[in-house]
Amino acid sequence: MLYKVKLKNADDAVILDSKVYEYLTTDPYLVKVDFINNLRKHSSGCAVWQKTWSKAGGGYKTETIYLHKLIAEKFLASEKSKAKNLVGAKNGNKLDCRLENICYRSRSVASRQRKTSSKVGYTGVYKENNRYRAVISVNRKSMHIGMFATAEEAALAYNKKSKELFGDDGKINVIKSK
Question: What is 111-169's CATH number?
């Protein structure tokens, strides 16, 4: 069974499976701080719980718990390794916190999965004059894939090369329909 938990500061909801929801609603500390009802959407797009506490000697301390990290540490600890130590969403939706969607991955894979900053809107695609160049990084070196008439053709060529080089860990551009 799936649960959708509304976030306090957004119209979005986080998706949880029953095993995770049960843990979040029965763990004594999480119940005490009303964790499930105080989740917010962080500027990074993921779900987060935050509370500022007064310190005994004066001052304040802010406690921050990222939902996806909490779930990974509780349920997927055996998958964590020295190389794969960052938590991410397999489908790219940071609010989909089902166990099947959360995984540990390496920094290089996480970097590859990040949203593009390209002006064209596709990772590895750049406009040059009236054509589009497709490039991909391999071992920190830029590899030229080709020149194309449209940004979409270049993005498809990038996708093919990314799949060939990196398999399921490669970045795949979502082609926009015109």
Answer: 3.30.730.10
